[in-house]
Every structure is written in structure tokens, then in C-alpha cells.
Amino acid sequence: MSPITEPSHLLNHPLVSSLQLETSASQFDGVPKELEHAVRLETGRLIQAAGILLRLPQEIIAQAIVILQRFYIGPGSLLESDSIVRLNARPSAPQLTECDVAAASLYLTAKPSATPVSPRQVLTSFAFLSSLQPGSMLSHDTEDKLSSSWHLSEGEYEISRAALYVCEAQILRALGFQTHVALPHTLCINYLQTLDVFQSESGPLLAKRTFAHLNSALLSPQMLYLTHQPSAITTAAIYLAARETGTKLPEVEWWEVFDVDREELGFLVVALRSVQGFASAEKQGRSERKVPMSVKELKEEIELR
């Protein structure tokens, strides 16, 4: 991943190379690609749900998910990449889980922001979400259950906090302390205003659908936030939302104004449309079984295949 050297980093960020995407550390360690996708989807959903419980801005939640994806892709070669198996293979390392790494991503992302959260808040939220049955992560009464009757014991908290700090250090080391993430959300309203969509009755609905696609793209198995710049993702989300809501956009090739060509636009639109199908298929295929989060659970899952 190349370093940030231009002022335009506020709107762009480094992208991963095709070599980095060919084979991940998890696959090299024996985790099938389909299972790896399931784990990444689940960790992304955990970060999203924990962020909602902690009342964090969507910007922080999105950055945390991207940071987690970057961590597992690594800075360069496969040998430099990380997986939960490799993290636990280090000498004197505590037994870490995918939840620990996801929690660390959210914690370190929120730390320098205007809405920092304490280790106890983050760990309590993740532990609570991990205790829920599959499919109930974002039910309406989740927040009430957490606030009224759920807490970590002091012993559990000390163990979890140690794991959190280890994961935070590993993430920062792997990323070279380069945690900047440029999000398409910041461009979205400007693009919509440029296209003058708010003059139509369907303008607010178009904006809502566009932001929904930007958020669901965070969970794409194709890791769109690592492979495309925010301007391209925003443009594709607007294009798809306009098709879905019947909102009329300029008949000219307006996406070229935002430096997006037709080929990239087409790829991203297809990718955005496929996220919901991917998530639904994963949910149906897994039924009541939880996604494996520890090395032990991963090995057990692989043996069942």
C-alpha cells in the first residue's frame, strides 16, 4: 500500500494491489475463501452493531471496518499479511479472536475522533453482541438488554483489555500507523447537489438509497473500499439508487465529470447490487450456526466441510 504524499488524501486513499488480493494470509493458512468471506462479513456486522450501540457516527464505524480490512490484506507481500492464526502463533501472545481484532479496529479509530470510547465500553458492547443468537444482532431490544442487564466481570474485562491492546498494536504496526481513510460519504451530498437531484420529489429517497449502498458496500466480499476511490464508489451508488427510485439524471455521461469511466461504473454497480444477495445467501447457508471467531472454531468448521 503506497504512502500518502499529496494534499488530495482528504478525498483519496491508497488502494491495494492485485497481488495483495490474489491470496490472503487466511487462505494461505488453510481457511477456505468462502469461510473467510463469512468471517469478514460477520466482523463487519459486529463493528457496525457495536458502533450503533456506542452511538458512534457512521463515519467512525465505516473507517473502522476499512481499517480492519486493510489489516488483514497487509502492507505488501503475503508474508507481511496477518490472519487470526498468525496472531495466535506469536510467542507469549494471548489467545485472540476475530472479535478482539474487530474491537481494536473500532477502538483505535474512535480514539482520536470527537467521539472517543473507553476500552470497557467497546469490550462490553462486543462481548454482549457475541453472546446473542445468530440473526438477533440488530434486533430492536438489543440496546435495552445491554444497558439494563449486561456487563463484563472485572476478570473478563482485564483479559479482554489485554487482548484489545495487543490487537491495537498489531494493527498499527501492520499499517505503519497510516490509519487515514477517505470515505465516499463525505462526497455524496456534494455529488447529489451537483446533479441537482433535490429538485425532484424522489431526491430525498435517492439520497437515502445512495447512503444505504455506501454502507452496504463496506461488507462487500470484493472489499470495494480498498480497491476503488471514494469518488467512484459514490458515483456508482448514486447511479444505482437513481435506477431503483426512478430518479431522472442527466442523459449525458455525467459520471465522467467525477472522473469515473463507464467500465469502472459498470463493475461497481454490479458489485453493489450483489452485496445483499451475498449477505442473504450467507445467512441462509449458515442457518443457526455461529460464524467461527477463534482459531479453534475455525479448525472445527473446516473439519466439518
From TrEMBL:
GO BP annotations of the record are: regulation of transcription by RNA polymerase II
The source's domain of life comes to Eukaryota
* Annotated InterPro entries: Cyclin-like_sf, Cyclin/Ssn8
The record's GO molecular-function terms, alphabetically, read: cyclin-dependent protein serine/threonine kinase regulator activity
Name of the protein = Cyclin N-terminal domain-containing protein
